[in-house]
Design goal:
Helix content: under 10%
Strand content: 25-35%
Order of helices and strands: EEHHEEEEHEEEEEEE
CATH class of the largest domain: Mainly Beta
Number of strands: 13
Radius of gyration: 33 Å
CATH architecture of the largest domain: Sandwich
Shape: elongated
Oligomer: single chain
C-alpha cells in the first residue's frame, strides 16, 4: 500500500485490509493519519508492505478456476464452485463422460458439480488410493491403462466380452470441515470389448511364402483361424478347375 500526502482529519479513520470474514485483518501501525504518508515499514516513505498469510487470494490462485467456475470458501475449505451462468448438465452424474480405447479407460467429471455436492477433486481417487484425478480445464479426469497405471482395475470376462472395471471413490476419511465422515461416493465405470472379432481383409492371399499383416485396434491375446475358400474359374474348354 502506497500513501501520498493526507490532510489531518478529526473523523474516524482506518488503514489496512482484511480477508473474507475478517480472519486475516491487518492494520497499518500508526497513531495519526498523517503518518501514513510520512512513515514506512520498508524504508520507502509512504509505502507499507505486509505478507498475507493463508489468504483467500493465495488459496484461489492455486485452484485455477475457469470462467465457468468461481472460487468459494465453505467451512474453511476453498474450491471451485459452479458460476451463476453454469447450466450444470447431467447433474445426477456430475456431467460424466467415459472414453475407452484399447485396454485403457477414463472418466471425466465436472469439478464444480463435485465440489457443490461436497466432493473436492483432490480427495477423490480410483480403486488404488494413489491414483488421483487430473484437472483438465473445469473437468477432473480419472484414467487407467495396462502399462504403469493399472490403478486397481478389475479384469472380468464372460462368454462373449472382456470387461475392465474401476471406480471413482471417496469414503469420508478426511476431516476437512466440508465433508462429513458419513459421506461417500462410488462411481463405477468400465470398458467392454468383445472376445471374438471377425476381421475381413479385402485382399487375395497366396500361400507362396507370403506374409499377411493386419493391425488390430485392441491389445490382447488372439486366436487366429484361417479358412481357405476354393477359387474356381472356367477354361474355354468348359473344364472346371479349382484351387484351395
Amino acid at each position: 500500500m502506497n500513501y501520498g500526502e493526507i490532510p489531518p482529519t478529526d473523523q474516524v479513520w482506518l488503514a489496512g485490509y482484511s480477508a473474507k470474514n475478517n480472519n486475516d485483518f491487518v492494520a497499518v501501525p500508526v497513531q495519526n493519519i498523517t503518518e501514513l504518508s510520512s512513515g514506512s515499514n520498508v524504508e520507502i516513505t509512504g509505502r507499507w508492505a505486509f505478507k498475507v498469510q493463508s489468504g483467500a487470494y493465495d488459496n484461489c490462485e492455486k485452484l485455477h478456476c475457469t470462467k465457468k467456475e468461481v472460487c468459494v470458501e465453505r467451512s474453511g475449505f476453498y474450491g471451485c464452485a459452479c458460476s451463476r451462468n453454469h447450466t450444470r448438465p447431467r447433474a445426477e452424474t456430475f456431467d460424466a463422460t467415459e472414453i475407452c480405447e484399447s485396454s485403457s479407460g477414463s472418466l471425466s467429471l465436472s469439478r464444480c458439480q463435485l465440489f457443490e455436492a461436497g466432493y473436492p477433486a483432490e480427495l477423490l481417487h480410483l480403486n488404488n488410493h494413489t491414483c488421483k484425478g487430473k484437472i483438465q480445464g473445469d473437468q477432473v479426469v480419472f484414467g487407467f491403462d495396462n502399462d504403469d497405471n493399472i490403478c486397481g482395475t478389475i479384469l472380468k470376462h464372460n462368454e462373449t466380452h472382456i470387461i475392465y472395471e474401476n471406480a471413482v471413490q471417496f469414503f469420508g476419511k478426511a476431516d476437512t470441515g466440508l465433508i462429513s465422515r458419513q459421506k461417500w461416493l462410488n462411481m463405477t465405470f468400465s470398458c467392454v470389448y468383445p472376445l471374438i472379432q471377425s476381421i475381413s481383409m479385402p485382399m487375395a492371399i497366396e500361400a507362396k511364402k507370403g506374409v499377411v499383416s493386419k493391425e488390430l485396434s485392441t491389445e490382447g491375446s488372439y486366436e487366429i483361424y484361417m479358412l481357405p475358400f476354393p477359387q474356381c474359374f472356367i477354361h474355354r474348354t468348359f473344364f472346371w478347375k479349382c484351387h484351395t
